[in-house]
Structure formats: structure tokens, C-alpha cells
Amino acid sequence: MPDTDYQQLQEFNLPGSLDIRPSEGNLPSVTVKTDPCIATQYLHGAHVTHWQPADHEPVLFTSAEAVYRDGKAIRGGVPICFPWFNAHPTDPDAPAHGLVRASTWQLTQTAQGPAGVETQMVTNLPTLHANYRATFGKQLTLNLTVTNTSDTDQTFEAALHTYLAVGDVKQVFIAGLENADYIDQLQDNKLCTQDDQPLTFTAETDRIYVDNQATCTLTDPTLNRQITIEKLGSLSTVVWNPWVDKSARTADFGDDEWTGMCCIESANIGDDAVRLAPGESHTLLVRVSVTPI
Ligand code: TA6
Fold first, then answer.
1. In the chain, which ranges are continuous DSSP H helix?
2. 89 C-alpha vs ligand 1 centroid, how far in Å?
3. pLDDT value at residue 2
4. What residues pair up with 191 in beta bridges, in sequence order?
5. What local confidence, expressed as pLDDT, does residue 1 receive?
6. How many DSSP H helices and E strands does the chain contain?
7. Nearest CA residue ID for atom 4, ligand 1
8. Does residue 86 have its Cβ closer than 6 Å to ligand 1?
9. Contact residues for 198 (Cβ-Cβ < 8 A; gap 6+)
10. pLDDT tens readout for residues 270-287
């Protein structure tokens, strides 16, 4: 990664709220410290790794084994999967989850807004421009806006791959997906339907809920809180926990960390992929909030 021009980045500092500094792996990051919350976002992948509202434990999980270097996605927080999800459809050498979660984005704006401290980061692909706006306050709001900069129609997949911190994944339950259809990635992508009960975790779980705009609410009796994931512009929801064996096979993930996390990802995948005409834009919005129970 080219040497970071911290002198140039200092213009984005908001005295008393936000500053730009080298963090893990000496990667440049935006650090937010305000009354409503503290947060960290790297220019690497525009990756939000930490968000902790006042009077709460951290809401995002980030692995203690995470690797912080160019070309490698940080394990945890909110990776941005774009312009494809999982493996590339035709290129076996292409990186999983697209091209932008392990490359440096450009910080273009910081501001103090009504809902919190705001950042804007951008990155360009040959035919698509991505603009990512994050708002760090009592809630965490993430907006991924993609614009077709080419002269032909473009189709893309995207996911805000949110890792949530939980007290004990075996005790949590997720409401909002009852009776919903999902692709089970652990059963050869078989199309299934959830029963009328909240989702609980009893084994490795890797589901893509399809054509689904539901708000999900995770109840965590161990940490005595509920985390709500609202979304707009998203027709897919992915729910994942690696459980024991996949955790042990994952180098940048602690063998026992599976008990302290689960992913609720707001996405557009497969048949829910987004098609844009030349010049057209699409926004995927996610709003995370936490309340005591
Ligand atoms: O969260 C859904 C998923 O596709 C899982 O299958 C698992 O592979 C996860 O993403 C993590 O992917 P990564 O490439 O970050 O290891």
C-alpha cells in the first residue's frame, strides 16, 4: 500500500470527535470518540470494525486473529462484499466476496450531522462507482450507493457482511425471518422454508434468505440486549455462524470465537442481484440499533 499521506488526511479531522490515525497493521483509520458512541473505520475496505454506543458493550465482533494488511479482508466488523458475493461466478482465481473489501478506499468527507459523525469513502471499478456513507451515533447507519458509470447495463451483487458480538450464540434468537424462504448453503444451496419460530443456532448455519426485506431483531439474553438490523434496498439476508469445525479451519478466526458472534448480512445476491442502466444508481441502507432488555 502506498505510504499514507496523513498530512493530507488531517483535513478530515473533526476536533473533539474524529481523527485519522494509523491503527492495526499501521493501516490508516478514522477514529470516532463522541458522547453517543466510539467507532473505528479503516480506509482499507472502508471497513467499519468497531461501533460501541454509550452504556453498551461493543456491538460489532472483530476477531482477535484478524489480519490487517493490503489484499486481505479484516475478519469481523462490516466487510463490504461487492461486486459479487461468495465465489466469482466464472473466475476461480477471483477473490471471494468481490474486489473492494481488501483494497484502500478514498476518504472524501467527514462531517458532524444530526444523527452522529458521518464519513464518506469511495472506490471505483471499471464500470461501477461505490460511495459508502457511514453515520456513527446512537445508531450505526451504513449506505452503500453504487452507480453504473459505463454505457451498458451492469448487474452486481453486494452485501454488508455484518458480524455482531453476542454473549453466547447458543442462547440468542433472531426474530423476523419466520416462515421465510432461504437457500441453505450447507445443503447444496437447497431452497428451504423456515418454520414459524425465531431462528436459533444449534450447529453451523449459513442461510441466504431470498426476496426478503424484513427487519431482524437479535435477542441476546447473556448480554441483556436486543440488536435490530433494519435495511432498505436489500432483498437478501444472510445469517451465518461457522460453529466448531469451520472456525477451526479458518486461519484468521479463533477456534472458540464462534460462540461470541453471528452474522446478519443485508445483501442483494443471486436472483436478488441489482441491475443498473447506464448512469443509474442503487443504495443499500443498513441501520443497526441496540436496546437493553
Ligand atoms: O457469511 C456467508 C459466507 O458466505 C459464509 O459462507 C462464510 O464463507 C462467510 O461468508 C465468510 O466468508 P470469508 O470469505 O470472509 O471467509
1. 6-9, 243-249
2. 15
3. 55
4. 183
5. 43
6. 2, 23
7. 86
8. yes
9. 173, 174, 175, 177, 178, 219
10. 999 999 999 999 999 999
Residue 212: helix, strand or coil by DSSP?
coil
176 phi, psi to nearest 5 deg: 120, -15
What is the sign, positive or negative, of the torsion defined by CA atoms of 81, 163, 259, 254?
positive
Other CB atoms within 10 A of residue 84 CB: 23
Find out whether the beta carbon of 97 lies less than 6 Å from any atom of ligand 1: yes
pLDDT value at position 6? Answer: 84
| HSE (side-chain half, CA atoms, 13 Å) at 70 | 8
Task: Say what the alpha-carbon torsion angle 87, 88, 91, 95 is, to the nearest 10 degrees.
Answer: -70
Instruction: Write out residues in the chain with pLDDT < 50, as ranges.
Output: 1
Does this model's pTM top 0.85? My answer is yes
Closest CA to 177 of 131, 217, 132: 217
| 218 grid coordinates | 437479535
pLDDT of residue 5: 81
Residue nearest to ligand 1 atom 15, measured at CA: 75
CA 75 to ligand 1: nearest atom: 15
pLDDT score, position 222:
98
User: In ligand 1, which atom is closest to the CA atom of 263?
Assistant: 1
Rounded to the nearest angstrom, the distance between the alpha carbon of 26 and the centre of ligand 1 is 25
Strand order in the sheet with 216-220: 106-113, 116-124, 128-136, 140-148, 281-292, 225-232, 216-220, 173-175, 199-200
85 Cα nearest atom in ligand 1: 4
- Cβ of residue 263 lying under 6 Å from some atom of ligand 1: yes
For residue 34 and ligand 1, the question of a CB distance below 6 A is answered with no
